[in-house]
C-alpha cells in the first residue's frame, strides 16, 4: 500500500504560544514531506482570559500575523523553497477557544482565515490544561471537570462560530496519569460527544500532541475515536506542533491509529476553504 501523503492541520508560531516563525514551520514541513500545512495560532482571547497575551495572538498583532503568513505563501508559490515548496499548500487558520459569548469575538478577530479549529482550554475562566494552575482540578474534582468539559464541548459543536474541526477532543484527560483520573465511566460521555459531532456535522481532530504529554495517548483515545468512526464523523489530523521540531510529529503513526478505529480516509482543508480527502 502506498504511503499516504503527510498533512498537518494544527500548528502554531511565535505569534501565539509557539516558538517558530511561519518560514521555520514551512521548512520543517517540507523536510517531513508535508503537502498541506495549516497554520492555526490561538485566536485572540478576551483580556480577562489571557491578560498578558501569553497564549493567543494579541489583537494588535493580527494584521502583522496575516501579512507574515501571506509573505511566506507568496515565496512558496514563487519557488523560493524549491519545487517541493510549490506543492505545499499553506492554509490560513486559527484555533479558537469556545466560551460563553465567543461567537462575536471570533467573527471580529478571525479575519479571512479559512480554517477554524474549535477547542476548550478554559471552564469558567479556569485553565484545564495548565500544570501551573490546577485550581479547577483541586476544587471541583476530576469527575465534575470531565462532565462540565463534555457539556461545553458538545455545546461548542453547535456554536454559531461554525468550527470546521474540534481540536484534541479529549484534552481533559491530560492529567489522568498524574493523580487526576476520573472515577466515573467515560463511555456515556464519549457517546454524547460522538452524537454531538455527528448531529452538528463537524470534523474532529486526531492529534498526536498527547503522545508528548503526561497522558501519553492520542487525542482522542481509541474508544472515543471508534465512536466517532461509527457515528460517521470525519477526521482531520494534526501535530499541534508548537515548535518546528514537532511539525508533522508522528502523523504516519496517527494514520495507523485511525485505520485501527475503522477509518479509511481523512480530510484536509485547502487554501480556498474547501476540503479534500486523503485515502489511508
From TrEMBL:
| Record-linked InterPro entries | Histidinol_P_phosphatase_HisJ, PHP_dom, Pol/His_phosphatase_N, Pol/histidinol_Pase-like
What Pfam families would the database entry show? PHP
So what EC number does this one have?
3.1.3.15
Mention any one GO cellular component term assigned to this protein in its UniProt record.
Answer: cytoplasm
Q: Name one GO biological process term.
A: L-histidine biosynthetic process
From the UniProt record, list the reaction(s) this protein catalyses: L-histidinol phosphate + H2O = L-histidinol + phosphate
Polymerase/histidinol phosphatase N-terminal domain residues are: 7-59
Give this protein's Gene Ontology molecular function annotations. Answer: histidinol-phosphatase activity
- What keywords would UniProt list here? Amino-acid biosynthesis, Histidine biosynthesis, Hydrolase
Which pathway is it part of?
Amino-acid biosynthesis; L-histidine biosynthesis; L-histidine from 5-phospho-alpha-D-ribose 1-diphosphate: step 8/9
Similarity section: Belongs to the PHP hydrolase family. HisK subfamily.
Protein name in the entry: Histidinol-phosphatase
Amino acid at each position: 500500500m502506498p504511503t499516504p501523503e503527510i498533512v498537518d492541520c494544527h500548528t502554531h508560531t511565535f505569534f501565539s504560544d509557539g516558538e517558530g516563525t511561519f518560514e521555520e514551520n514551512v521548512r520543517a514541513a517540507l523536510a517531513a514531506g508535508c503537502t498541506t500545512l495549516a497554520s492555526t495560532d490561538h485566536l485572540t482571547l478576551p483580556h480577562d482570559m489571557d491578560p498578558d497575551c501569553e497564549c493567543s495572538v494579541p489583537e494588535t498583532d493580527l494584521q502583522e500575523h496575516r501579512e507574515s503568513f501571506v509573505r511566506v505563501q507568496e515565496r512558496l508559490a514563487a519557488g523560493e523553497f524549491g519545487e517541493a515548496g510549490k506543492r505545499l499548500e499553506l492554509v490560513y487558520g486559527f484555533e479558537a477557544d469556545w466560551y460563553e459569548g465567543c461567537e462575536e469575538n471570533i467573527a471580529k478577530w478571525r479575519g479571512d482565515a479559512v480554517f477554524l479549529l474549535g477547542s476548550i482550554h478554559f471552564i469558567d475562566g479556569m485553565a484545564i490544561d495548565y500544570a501551573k494552575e490546577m485550581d479547577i482540578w483541586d476544587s471541583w474534582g476530576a469527575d465534575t471537570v470531565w462532565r462540565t468539559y463534555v457539556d461545553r464541548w458538545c455545546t461548542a459543536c453547535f456554536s454559531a462560530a461554525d468550527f470546521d474541526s474540534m481540536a484534541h477532543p479529549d484534552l481533559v484527560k491530560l492529567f489522568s496519569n498524574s493523580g487526576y483520573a476520573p472515577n466515573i465511566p467515560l463511555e456515556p460521555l464519549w457517546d454524547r460527544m460522538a452524537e454531538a459531532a455527528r448531529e452538528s456535522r463537524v470534523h474532529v481532530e486526531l492529534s498526536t500532541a498527547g503522545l508528548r504529554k503526561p497522558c501519553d495517548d492520542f487525542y482522542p483515545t481509541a474508544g472515543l475515536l471508534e465512536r466517532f468512526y461509527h457515528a460517521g464523523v470525519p477526521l482531520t489530523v494534526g501535530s499541534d506542533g508548537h515548535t518546528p521540531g514537532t511539525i508533522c510529529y508522528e502523523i504516519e503513526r496517527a494514520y495507523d491509529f485511525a485505520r485501527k478505529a475503522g477509518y479509511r480516509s481523512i480530510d484536509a482543508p485547502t487554501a480556498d476553504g474547501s476540503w479534500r480527502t486523503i485515502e489511508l
